[in-house]
UniProtKB/TrEMBL annotation:
Matching NCBIfam families: PRK10542.1
Gene3D superfamilies: 1.20.1050.10, Glutaredoxin
Protein name in UniProt: Glutathione S-transferase
Top-level taxon of the source organism: Bacteria
Residue intervals of the GST C-terminal domain: 87-201
Ranges in a coiled coil: none
Lineage of producing organism: Bacteria, Pseudomonadati, Pseudomonadota, Betaproteobacteria, Nitrosomonadales
Family membership: Belongs to the GST superfamily.
PROSITE patterns from the UniProt entry: GST_CTER, GST_NTER
Amino acid sequence: MKLYYSPGACSFSPHVVLHESGLPFESERVDLKAKKTASGIDYNTINPKSYVPALVMNNGELLTEGPAIVQYIADLVPEKKLAPPAGTLERYRLQEWLNYISSEIHKGFGSFFNPLASEEMKSATRSRLAKRFGFAGNALEGRDYLLGDTFTVADAYLFIMLRWTRFYGIDLSPWPALGAYFDRVAARPAVIATLKAEGLP
């Protein structure tokens, strides 16, 4: 398998999951502005959507969209328990979290990437995102991870979203469970390996 990623982007999530899986894989950095891979290939010829992540599977097929990619990887190594078994209520809880993070948190950062967004818009975005993260913070009270005691692919996704808050001035101090959770996930060997691989502090 080969993962195309951009350092610190949402592709960080499947990058962590690949490290957690223990499966052999390659990775290649993508310059999203130039739309070029580190080896000089036009990224649009690999992924017509023009964004990361993208995973070239062992059969040569392309899989895109982070929530789909992480579940695919998790299902290759069920013994790692990165996702509950398909068809169980727990699996639907995982998908519930993946969808919430994708639609309510991830996409919520959009105005920060829009050069035409006003400071008023960005301020409103900070307030809205803080409430969204607050929901997650409340859910994490008394538990180590989103689904309980076991780290799953949803935790890899929420982690990188929490990391983004540090760059955009989103105050999460009202939810101390989020800070403890962030530190807990950051200490995982797979997360440390991914930070190193992507050249992030």
